[in-house]
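Predict the holo structure. Ligand: protoporphyrin IX containing FE.
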Amino acid sequence: MEDRTGQVVEAEAAAVLGFDPGDPAFRADPYAHYRRLAAGGRRLHRTDVGLRVTTSYDLCEQVLRDPQFGHRPEGGGLWRESRARNRSFLTMDPPDHTRLRRLVSKAFTPRLVERLRPRVEALVDELLDGVSGDVDLIATLAYPLPVIVISEMLGVPAQDRDLFKGWSDSLARGLDPDFLLPEDEIEQREKAREEFAAYFRDLAAQRRVRPQEDLLSALVSVSDGGDVLSEEELLATCVLLLVAGHETTVNLIGNGALALLRNPAQLELFRRRPENVQAAVEELLRYDPPVQLTLRAALEDVDLNGTFVERGKLVLLLTGAANRDPAVFEDSDRLDLTRYSDGRDTPRHLSFGHGIHFCLGAPLARLEGQVALKKLFERDVALADAGDLVYRDNLVLRGLRDLPVTIRA
Ligand code: HEM
């Protein structure tokens, strides 16, 4: 439709999804909506247009593990055919996914990430150094930290980093499925993606000639039994890593800080037991996850626990709801920073996904979240009263536009 506006799409989205993702009440507290959806007891819902939706932990896990579900049923998929050139392995199925993920994993290793710890610590100190009074925590810490880290990791020179600011907003919706986006947003996103790719094409050419100690040089030269990344695969991977680096960890830090500030007893525990920071961040990831959902399509006709799902039909997995499934998590709406402490056998949250697409950047995101929140709350921080908090306009990602706080030096 030529005259599609954002509003029309929101209305359509509500029909597709069975809820209106643009509704401020939903944005403020999606969990209340999830609870209502789950209250009927049915584990698999069907919206007016036939989309299947689930809030169940077991069902989300099951679909994410099941090779009968994926991204690309024959004759279509979640993303448009014409955009295929730009597709990263996030939205591919085996065997393409397997091959690319294996190649990229060889360059992006947990060891490489752990080596970054001192740099992440220094960056957090730098960003917080001398900061006092009323500040926006997103702009001060949550956004710049992951952007600088992923840029440095890839080998983007510091003076070029600002180039990304303009592109980043358009790419923020890059994780939302095309069928929920207005045409102009898709166009903007594709343009940003192409500009990003062009930028990396030049940088990659430089690294081929003169490799450096960075991830881009590693990706350029990575090989697996003679197999290498093609130019297009390399560029799509760089864009994926940059989008993931820009748009997700910011929300772990933002949502995590907000959850602690709203739960003073838990914040006190967080400060008193810094050695528990790993477990605390896992609980923050479970409690208010940066990525709220994912989608899969049936690659063939599937019998999903007695419900027939026709080939090509989509299942919306509300992993943000699954993380609070009362059948799996005790007192699931409560923030409990000891839930993942040693000796407690809490099931894993689904915030980094599950199965073959499990987040490749999880070790990096965890490292940044742990260091940022620990160092932030070594300071005296309070929530500033700035009216209602506003969330960014996004379906898959959940994150604040800004988070006003007062930091006392
Ligand atoms: C707190 C921060 C993050 C969260 C919550 C998160 C969450 C996720 C989730 C849920 C998926 C799976 C999506 C699906 O199955 O549909 C995923 C995949 C992925 N993430 Fe992350 N992510 C985070 C940070 C990062 C970072 C920092 C990077 C890298 C710089 C990254 C790189 C990736 C990649 C490459 C994939 C695709 C894996 C595959 O398809 O095999 N993520 N992430």
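Residues 6-408 form a domain with the Cytochrome p450 fold (CATH 1.10.630.10). The pocket of protoporphyrin IX containing FE is lined by residues 89-90, 101, 150, 240-241, 244-245, 248-249, 252, 289-291, 294, 351-353, 357, 359-361, 364-365 (CB under 6 Å).
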